[in-house]
Structures are given as C-alpha cells and as structure tokens.
C-alpha cells in the first residue's frame, strides 16, 4: 500500500466519522428540544399545583370540620399526602 492509498483511506474514514458525528449531533439537538418542552411542562404542573394546593387544603379542612374530623387529624392526612409527593 503506497502513501496515496493510505492517505485516501484515512480521508474516507474521516468523512465517515464526520457523517456519524453530524447524525449524533442532530439526534442530540432533537433530544434537547424534547427535554426543553418536558421541562416547561413540568414547570407548568408545579406552578398549577402550588396555586391549587392551598385552596384545596382549605376546602378539605372545611369538609373535614363538617364531617367531624379534628384539625390535628386533618394535618396528619395532609402530611401523608405531602409525603406521597
């Protein structure tokens, strides 16, 4: 194998590797976009939960008061729910 053939083989190998790296970068970019969308969705869910958590617990406390459950028992139920999150 002469010098030119080795050089030609190396150039071909580099071209193949370059195409593979480009394909990997395209896939990585797609994953990054999907991750960004999922992150924004998780932030939306967390904000919604934070806004609804207090009024929902207030309503549960009122219902529990009507049902005759003590506020201490209601706090225990609330901490159980929060522990599940």
How would you portray this structure in words?
The chain is mainly α and 85 residues long. The protein has one domain (3-84). 93% of the residues lie in helices and 0% in strands. The chain has 2 helices and no strands. The protein has helices at 3-67, 71-84. The N and C termini lie far apart (66 Å).
Characteristics:
85 residues, mainly alpha
Strand and helix map with partners:
Layout: H1 3-67, H2 71-84
How many distinct domains? Answer: 1
Tally of helical runs: 2
Unreliably modeled segments: none
State the major sheet: none
Q: Roughly how many Å is the radius of gyration? A: 29 Å
User: How is the quaternary structure best described?
Assistant: single chain
Secondary structure: number of strands: 0
Helix content: over 70%
Structure class: mainly alpha
Shape: rod-shaped
Q: N- to C-terminal separation?
A: 66 Å
> What is the overall pLDDT average?
81
Query: Percent of residues in beta strands?
Result: under 5%
């Amino acid at each position: 194998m002469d010098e030119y053939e080795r050089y030609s083989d190396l150039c071909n190998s580099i071209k193949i590797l370059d195409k593979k790296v480009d394909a990997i970068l395209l896939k990585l970019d797609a994953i990054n976009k999907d991750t960004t969308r999922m992150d924004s969705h998780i932030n939306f869910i967390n904000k919604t939960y934070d806004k609804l958590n207090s009024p929902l617990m207030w309503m549960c406390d009122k219902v529990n008061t009507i049902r005759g459950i003590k506020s201490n028992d209601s706090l225990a139920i609330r901490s159980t729910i929060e522990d599940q999150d």
